[in-house]
Amino acid sequence: MATQTEPKALVPSDEPPAFAYYINLDAQPNRRARMERLLPRCGLAARRVCAVTPADEAHAKLMRACDACDEIGEGHRVKVSHGMRANTLSHVAVWRDIVARAETEPLALVFEDDVMLLKEWRAELADCFARLPAGCGAPPRSAGCRDDAA
After folding, report:
1. Residue 34 belongs to what domain range?
2. What is the distance of C-alpha 17 from the center of its chain?
3. Count of domains forming the chain
4. Does residue 125 sit within a domain?
5. Which tens digits make up the pLDDT trace of 80-89?
6. Which residues in the chain belong to E strands, given as ranges?
7. DSSP β-ladder status, 19-24 and 45-50
8. Residue 148 included in any domain
9. Is the pLDDT of residue 73 over 80?
10. Among 121, 118, 66, 108, which residue's Cα sits nearest to residue 88?
């Protein structure tokens, strides 16, 4: 099961907080340290999710489910690597947590631990929010997209 660490820092603001989940293998502590430095500098509260590996029970459970369903199992076993299945399960864990926290944390970003954020990432994100149709639930004032956060 994926484990998480709670946010360590957030740039003070009138805007709703922006949380950034990052998926990280226990075997990659250097990448974890990098993300724990990078995300707070970008005004994002870092929340680590331990990456699922092919050795984890969650992966074994998925494989048993695939084996039980011939329509899925045959193509899945051949075309999707164990690493990709585990990666998918890591993302599923993140999205479940986002849904569970949606009432109190209306905005969350999801990264893997090798993400490279462009200097203009906030402006790009604000532009994406601006393009969303009215009433879709976009955060007010493009939360977390301030240029002074880095």
Report:
1. 4-117
2. 15
3. 1
4. no
5. 788 888 898 8
6. 4-5, 19-24, 45-50, 108-112
7. parallel
8. no
9. no
10. 66
